[in-house]
Structures
1.
Amino acid sequence: MLSVNQFRANLKQYVDLAIDNHEPLQVSRKNGEAFVVMSLEDYEREQETLYILGNLSLMEQIQSSLTTYNKGTGHTPNSDELGF
């Protein structure tokens, strides 16, 4: 975790690291509060994941697909469906 002063002094470097490494960067303030810096791409991915995990219908569809896949009974697309 970085201090806000370290973050401020090297803002571009730390933002580039967060974007390039796809890892959130934790920054702490003197009063103990903290915040996270992350790329927009990573933030949107996290939001999408949270949406899916919070959507019971989608989770049931995923579970059903996983079950049929593991049993080998799922749909096998033909070459037209694959675009060949």
2.
Amino acid sequence: MNQGSDSTSEVPASLWLAEVWQEYCERITRMLAARMPESLQRRMGVDDLVQETYLACGRRINFLREPGELPVYVKMRRIALQTLADMERKHLAAGKRDAMKEVEIAPTDPDRSDYSDAWAQFADTISSPRTHMERLERQATTRRVLQQLPKIDREILELRHFEELSNAECAAVLEITQKTSSIRYVRALKRFRDLLLEEEKRL
């Protein structure tokens, strides 16, 4: 079944959503777990947020199934981000921007333990540490690099490496061409590597 087109319009909506959700649920869960603030996690679990996202997808089934170039996962991701914003408003009484209308999705906080570890592990792919002390130093080094790295670079690296989006999906999320997305990724990766190696030379 090609879930990105309307060629499956004869498939019942509930069955179609269940099949698509099964394919993308793990990616949606990882993305929400990384972006969900700790203040909200004290009010509800990640699993609860994922369930709310599934219900929201059911309410926006026509949006998910309508034909177009936008990948189904990217549509589902937008609904997930909107659901996250809705839950923050509901539980934290904080005014949040509408994620469905945002072109630029802000990167997550690299100082959070789960995401800091992810960045440190990403840094390990460039030059792997061998001891526990080196791993601790790598985490500190990575945080310093992230302070220097432009947000636009962090964003594309997070999408590609942590959310595991394809170049086409990144382009759709950022509303840029695939060529521009590819160029931005290569430049961001080079800048991250250069800054990391420069920081390590100072140790």
3.
Amino acid sequence: MVTPEITYLPREMGNIAQTLRAKAGGLADVSASLVAALFELGADVHVALPHYRRMFNIEAGKLIDRELRAYREILSDARIHLAEDRIFHYRDEVYSCYHGEGKKLSLAFQREVINNILPKVDPDLIHCNDWMTGLVPAMARRTGVPCLFTVHNIHTQEITLSEIEDRGIDAAEFWTDLYYVRPSHTYEETRWSNPVDLLTSGIFAAHFVNTVSPTFLREVCEGRHRFVPDSVRRELANKLLAGCAFGILNAPNPSFNPRTDPGIEVNYSWEDHAQAKRKNKLRLQERLGLAEDPTAALFFWPSRLDPTQKGPQLLAEIMYEMVSDYWESGLQIAVIANGSYQRHFHDIARFHDLHGRVAVCDFDENLSRLGYAAADFMIMPSLFEPCGLPQMIGSIYGCLPVVSDTGGLHDTVSPLDVSRNEGNGFVFEVWDPPGLRWAMDRAMDFYRLPSTIRKEQIARIMRESEERFNHAVTAKQYIDLYEKMLRRPLIGP
């Protein structure tokens, strides 16, 4: 497993397994769950990570020479392989916003993986993740090792062969298996002036690829999203046509469990959710300054306020009329998220004097967890969604999702039909403010049903979501894919 992110590793994997935490998104949780599942099944699984000393709390300055030598000696026999380079040692975050530093991080990591870690491990199969590992599949193809490349996010970097080689990677060995900005002819012509696209190279050279939802894979291959580069779309489509591309959903971190979550006021399960959610609602209302009313329908916005992807502008357009039209029902909206649209929500609430009905505050982990436990519905009207985790967490907590019909939301949320005892949320197909309003109206229709019916449906949804949205299910799909790869002969370079 070659990954720039991780959240936890099995204690048995090494003396520092429990200290390794470097997370920027869902990739960290998926990597951790896969490693744990493989390890539990008895697989000889190894992990390659950058050595983020500060994030791992293993700063060289705090270790005397004897301790540092002993630490390295123990680690050398473990299954955890930390790529050493000073560029990682004092970082506070996985990725960099500074110009050019992201490339340096990626090349330092891949240099250690290609030159030192993989030759030492001699793996039967390699699993790479996102653009920071985009050179490894080409190297793996040259050495005849099957490689899975997982696309979590459509982000990439472009870099020339000369820069790659100047950082200590002998790309001349596999330069024909990389993907370039324009068609390549000779090594000499390509080396200086024809950049390598790291994300597309990973897709192009890998044995198999996968995205983090089946529908998002189909949408990308059909060209439905303008932000996806043509190179990524073409290479994913080629892999799909060859039967070598799949979509596998991520799953929430196991800590998102209302039975045990320490961040909520009252723990509960699908069997006793009703009273507990009322108490959690009162606690959230108290903390956010909302009117304290356990019978009020509460909508919760949990994801970042990014108008490019998450669609906060849709809610901004209808917020006042939604609260106004359901004033007698006590409808409330809680936004616990950061982003550029936070200011717009504040302005709307202030202008229309919606104090007690609308609350907007910065993201806080424990407050967000309380939001899931307290709210009746969560809002996620994304324009596109590679996977998404809030809608799964909401279903587990009995906070029913109101979502647009796209990507991972399509794969995880289906329209609630009480008469058929199926579905888990409210889905709108036309991405505009009236579309979101329609879905929120359907949520209110459900909220007005007799409490016994609502209680029964929410219990079913929580129970089904607990069984469906977990790392064991996700890991099994990856393991099945690994076995499929090992059964399918790798065509040589």
4.
Amino acid sequence: MKIFFTWWNKQTFGTFLKTLFTGKYVGKDNFGNKYYKNKNDQRWVIYANNIEATKISSEWYLWMHHTIDKLPDTKELKKYSWEKDHQENLTGTSKSFKPVKIKKNENLKKYETWK
């Protein structure tokens, strides 16, 4: 019943029908998101858990926005040693970046003024 009344539970009823009748499964990413396309080259994603657009990795993002036509292959994907794995946007969560607080009495001057 959730699929009829809420859009935040994976997909809407309309997307379910579109996927069922016209969708062709093309792949899955590391997050478990499933990617589909139809004969008109419309592309869409069905998210694995909660709907968060930043869960799409850069390779699949390029494919989704018709920048590349070749499907991303995680087996032949080369990563440099300095590259990190893709993460969703963590703003508003307990894992979000929080800058270090500066104490009022701390000397911040890191340069000498001209005399």
